[in-house]
Each structure stands twice: as C-alpha cells, then as structure tokens.
Amino acid sequence: MKYRPLGRTGLDVSILSYGASSLGGVFHDIDESQGVRTVHEVLDLGINLIDVSPYYGLTKAETVLGKALREIDRDRYILATKVGRYGDDPADFDFSADRVKASVDESLERLGVDHIDIIQCHDIEFAEFDYVMNEAIPALREVVAAGKAKFVGVTGLPLTVFTKTMDRLGPDGFDTILSYCHFELNDTTLLPIARDFAEKGLGVINASPTGMGLLTERGAPDWHPAPESIMAVCQEAVELCKSRGKPITDLAIAYAVSEPSIASTLVSSSNPANMRRNIAAAEAELDTELLADVQRVLQPVMDQTWHSGRPEYAA
Ligand code: NAD
Questions:
Q1: What is the pTM of this model?
Q2: Does residue 65 line the site of ligand 1, with CB under 6 A?
C-alpha cells in the first residue's frame, strides 16, 4: 500500500481508504460479523484511514465500526466521522453549535474512542452556507480545542461547497475536504480543485470510485440519484470490461488512486473479498489501454452529475 500526506495535517494516509457506510447497510443488508472482519482485514492489508458518519444506517455504521475498532489499537488507524446530517429530509440536518458538539460526543461513544482525527460537516449543501460557517465551524474548533478531534473538514456533492468554504475561511481555516462522485472514470471535475487545494495545504479526500455503485456489475442501488442516462452508459462501460474479463471496479480504483493531489480515495464494501480485491487494484498498474477504451464509451455522460442540496447549488 502506498501512503500520501493528507495536506498539512502531518498524517500520512493510505491512497485507498475504507468507507464504512456499507456497515450501516446502506447498499443492502449486511452480516454484522462479516463487516467487523472486513474492518480488521483492511487494516491488516495497509489501509489506515476509515470514514464514517452518524447518518450511515442512522447510527448503525458507527455502532458496527465501533465493535470492530474496540479490538484494535487506537494508533493503527486514522478515524474520520461527521456532524450535521442525520437523515434525508431537510429537517434531518442540524448544524447548530449545540447539536454539533453533542453529535461528536455521541460518535465518540458509539465508536468507543477518546478522539476523532477528522471531524467533518456532512453534506453542507443542504444547509444555509452562512449558518454552517457561523455555527458548526466554530463549534468544531471548540471540539478540537477540547482534544476530542484533531482536524476539521467539509463534505458535499456540489464542488462549489469547497470553493465557497475556501473563499470564506481561507486555506488555514479548515484542514480537509471530502468530495464524492467527482473523480472516477465518468467524472473528473474534482481535478482542478484537488490540485489547487493540495497546493494550499488542504487534505483532499475523494470518495466513491465506483460512483456509489454505478461502475459495478451489480449496478447502482434503487436510491441512486443519477439520471437514467448516466446509469445506462455506465452499464455499457461495465459490459465492455466484462467482455475483456476485467472487472470494472479494478480499473475504477486504479484510476481513482492515480492522481497525486488526491491524498486518499474512500471505497466501501462490507465484503472482505471485495475489499481484498480493491486493495490489490490500488496496488496494481493502471491499465491505460483499457482506461482509454472505457472512457470512450463513457464520453456521452462524461463529467455529468446530478443536483444535490439547496436551490442555490443548482449547476
Ligand atoms: P463506492 O464507489 O465505494 O461504492 C460502493 C458500492 O460499490 C457498494 O455497493 C459496494 O458493494 C460496491 N463495491 C465496492 N467494491 C466492490 C468490488 N470489488 N466489487 C463489486 N462491488 C464493489 O461509493 P460509496 O460507498 O458511496 O463511497 C465510499 C465511502 O466514501 C463511503 O462509505 C463514505 O465513507 C464516503 N462517502 C462520503 C460522502 C459524503 O461525505 N457526503 C458521500 C459518499 C461517500
């Protein structure tokens, strides 16, 4: 496994990291003991960054992850979780200072740890931007001052959440960004931001190298927000890889970890065999010939995305 510095945090993170949303059963029902085994196995294979949220499985992912982590020395992993998102309705977002601070305490309890490494505001495009900046960010700085977390980040789908945060806080006012579905075979729009932010010392985390299942043989789950046009073309790319005897997830992962300005890419599966395969793919050479063929198929939907959050974030 290769490691890269996470901006100026002083942390070196594995280029492939573990997204624990699967442990909350967000894709399909999971076997909890298998999920625990998966966490142990990915750490043994060199992954050192794990990302979760109270939102995943409505606290289930943090609870299952906590069971796995209770058996592991705290210095073996870098732990990221989130605040502010607790469901899918607008009413399920709460970035108030009091809720954010209570949320960190609840996560510490569920995860069975005394500190979190990276505490992130989750999907900030669903809240009023000024409110997140004026309530949640200062509250998280207090959480850091209290020793309950080390670094502060923001996450979201529209890339403007990151540029707005940079404009407001400056490069020293936050530590990390977590972007998803914007650096994968069918979408490369994160690149200019990743390069600019990494140069400014921010830690750039990329999530969803399969586009939350778009680039898998199983296909996207029912709740997937992508329009049918994107899903259909992604399935053509899946079929092309299948016809060459090469699972598309291998290519998707090798591609996602190939960009040096992205410190780490989060992938999720509760299945240990899938994660072993993903780790091997992150360590393998990128098949540039297959990449070119697949991206040719994906061209009609390249860099297309979907709306997420409040109307002001409409593309
Ligand atoms: P992903 O691209 O990792 O897709 C996960 C899906 O791919 C699951 O259905 C999984 O079973 C399947 N999969 C994984 N490896 C496979 C393999 N080898 N073969 C076949 N199928 C495979 O997308 P994701 O789960 O959305 O993202 C990963 C992590 O990133 C999440 O767990 C979370 O930690 C983080 N994330 C954060 C945000 C946010 O903060 N807003 C959003 C998305 C993701």
A1: 0.98
A2: no
